[in-house]
Predict the 3D structure of the following.
Amino acid sequence: MKTQILVVDDDMSILKLLNFILSKDYDLVIKNSGLEALSWLEEGNDPTLIISDLQMPYLDGQTFVRNLKISGFYRDTPIIVLSGAENLENEVEGMPFKIDAYLQKPFNPTSLKSAITMVLNLYYTSGHAHNN
């Protein structure tokens, strides 16, 4: 069974690119907003990894991630942020919760795959992995 990754982004070109480069190796669930993603998670779904944009309508990525980190169930789910934010490093470092990795848009697909591999390896070796 493939590792399930929840991808949250409102940019269709990014979603198509992510689907193209990741769907061969991972089971992708794609949501267009933080609200859609939270609704999907509230149905009891448990992805191994979440990739989220920060700048989205309705519920921005920072609020979405904050909601996950304060929940008991998703607190340890690793998160990779993809964002076009100009000061992404400062924005991520200023967050009151842990982001496992972040990449600036436009991103290099190889860098993203490396970040996913690194984050998943840490997740599985840390003992946080749920038995999906």
Remarks:
- The chain has a mean pLDDT of 91.
- The two ends are 10 Å apart (CA to CA).
- The longest strand covers residues 4-8.
- The chain has one domain: 4-126.
